[in-house]
C-alpha cells in the first residue's frame, strides 16, 4: 500500500503547502512517494495520505504534540523510525493545530546547516 495517494490527500497537501511554501528556503521533493518538504536541503516534514510526518522534533515536543493529537512513530515498511512522528489529520481544515510543531521542525532543520 502506498504511503500517499494524491486523490485522497489533495486537500491536506493544499492546506499544508499554503503555509509551509511561504517559509524561507522551503522546497518540495518526493520521498517514499510522498510530497516532502526540505529547508536548506534538510527534511523537516512529509505528507502521507492520512496525516503529516514531522521529522525534526525534539522529544519534549513529540510528547506535547501527542497530548492533543493522535500520533505514532513513522513506519517505513517493517522498520519503525522512532524519531519521525506521524500525526493523523482527519480534517485538512484542522491543519493549523499542528503547524507550530511543523514550524519547530523547520527551524531545527534550518539550525543544522
The residue-averaged pLDDT reads: 95
CATH topology: Yope Regulator, Chain: A
Secondary-structure element series: HEEEEHEEH
**Spatial order of strands in the largest sheet:** 1-2-3-4-6-5
SS summary, helix count: 3
The rough form would be described as globular
Task: For the record, give the distance between the C-alpha atoms at the N and C termini, rounded to a whole number.
Answer: 34 Å
Give the helix level as a range of percent: 25-40%
* Major sheet characteristics: 6 strands, antiparallel
Could you walk me through the main structural features you see in this protein, from its secondary elements to its overall organization?
It is a single chain. The chain is an alpha+beta fold and 113 residues long. The protein has a single domain, classed as Yope Regulator, Chain: A (2-Layer Sandwich). 34% of the residues lie in helices and 35% in strands. It has three helices and six strands; from the N terminus they run αββββαββα. A six-stranded antiparallel sheet has the order 1-2-3-4-6-5. The longest helix is centred in the first third of the chain and has 15 residues, at 6-20. The radius of gyration is 13 Å and the shape is globular. The protein starts with 5 loop residues before the first helix and ends with a helix. The mean pLDDT is 95.
Amino acid at each position: 500500500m502506498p504511503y500517499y495517494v494524491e486523490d485522497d490527500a489533495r486537500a491536506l497537501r493544499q492546506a499544508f503547502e499554503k503555509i509551509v511554501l511561504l517559509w524561507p528556503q522551503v522546497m518540495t521533493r518526493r520521498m517514499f512517494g510522498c510530497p516532502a518538504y526540505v529547508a536548506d536541503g534538510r527534511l523537516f516534514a512529509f505528507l502521507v495520505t492520512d496525516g503529516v510526518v514531522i521529522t525534526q522534533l525534539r522529544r519534549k515536543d513529540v510528547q506535547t504534540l501527542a497530548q492533543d493529537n493522535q500520533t505514532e512513530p513513522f513506519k517505513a515498511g517493517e522498520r519503525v523510525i522512532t524519531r519521525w512522528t506521524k500525526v493523523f489529520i482527519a480534517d485538512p481544515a484542522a491543519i493549523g493545530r499542528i503547524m507550530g510543531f511543523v514550524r519547530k521542525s523547520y527551524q531545527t532543520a534550518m539550525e543544522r546547516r
